Amino acid sequence: MGGKVYVVGIGPGGEEQLTPQARRAMERADVLCGYTVYIDLVRPLFPDKETYTTPMTRERERCRWAMETARAGRTVAMLCSGDAGVYGMAGPVAQLAPEFPEVELEMVPGITAALSGGAVLGAPLMHDFCVISLSDLLTPWEKIENRLLCAARGDFSICLYNPSSKKRADYLRRACGILLREKGPETVCGWVRNIGREGQERRVLTLAELREETVDMFTTVFIGSSTTQALEGWMVTPRGYEAKA
Amino acid sequence: MGGKVYVVGIGPGGEEQLTPQARRAMERADVLCGYTVYIDLVRPLFPDKETYTTPMTRERERCRWAMETARAGRTVAMLCSGDAGVYGMAGPVAQLAPEFPEVELEMVPGITAALSGGAVLGAPLMHDFCVISLSDLLTPWEKIENRLLCAARGDFSICLYNPSSKKRADYLRRACGILLREKGPETVCGWVRNIGREGQERRVLTLAELREETVDMFTTVFIGSSTTQALEGWMVTPRGYEAKA
Fold first, then answer.
1. pTM for the whole thing?
2. Is B98 on the interface with A (CB under 8 A)?
3. Interacting residues of A221 by C-beta distance below 8 A, sequence separation 6+
4. Which of A62, A237, B26, B142 is the most exposed place for a label (fewest CB within 10 A)?
């Protein structure tokens, strides 16, 4: 008789964007599993809950541990920042499903940064959009570059995750350079740092200014489409209603 | 002294994916405003709350009504299915901000269908993805076609909103035809109908099968990247960890 693994998106980290479904999954779990920072975010809600933490680069081990623990009959909640299915653990866990057929899986969606950060800036996405990660740890830069070009040529609104890290300090500049091949320098952009947390910051700026900007790994970046506007401090991509009589 | 408008994403409609922040915005509002179906979804939570409903095609009037009502000193919660900033009301409301500077605005993110539907299918997005609406009510089909081609050429995972309606019964077929110019017919796809509601249905299938599928307006469609797999009934796009030693 196998147990269950919930893969849970906890949102930006605060209680106010944690869904009831996510909270219940964690209540039902015998043990919470995840990256140390995420466990610490929810610990105040479950001070007596057993936890299992692993460092950032040991995701596959964490998933295997969760499935093995569930196979032994326990219920595990694997925690992910934002949404479990957007650069989270839903994929790696599901990839183990064939090896652990007796374990029940349930994915619990959460508020990913494109949405929580978007709400801080106003309505930067609104219409068709792309989400792209600038992290080339697992993806060749050539593939990221192609995606940036395709996103620009499709005139999508764009949201960039992982725009920067110690080893990748110039990636945002490089990405902006690629986008500027297809998009105007006045394209309205924005970023949000520490979404929903202490020290949250936001800025609305042009693509030319964004290229000169220094951002960190806690920042989510938004690049507008050809129709995006800056209005009263909000970054707003029209839905198209203006074309209606 | 102006009032406030909250633009609130209520998620798929059930209480379990309604965030505390969204619930509090509705509690604080003097009146809930929105499309009749969304008001009815939350009415059990706020049985005595004043409401103002409008039909689906009167969004701009609804936004103006909300801003005028707030300017008179009241607090309005404008409700949107899913997330307010993804084909929702955040943009149209923010576009009125210059005309109503005394009104405070707050956008409240919610679980959009790409995430709630994605969780039902497993992990269809996972990595870089695009969201595209097949509704050409406000967007020329040529633009939609270009976006589908760009999304395919970028090898993004793709999520399609509004895949079908009475007047647009063959749009999914047309979209699949366009994608098949760049993607293989065996590309793993999926759809979810009535996400999170009574009568929820799901299916994992190939792109060739998807082209022959009949879906309705309550369905969200997912098209995989070149690496997406079908595993034990789950639609799973790898994060790329397999490439790691």
1. 0.96
2. yes
3. A159, A160, A163, A172, A189, A190, A191, A210, A215
4. B142
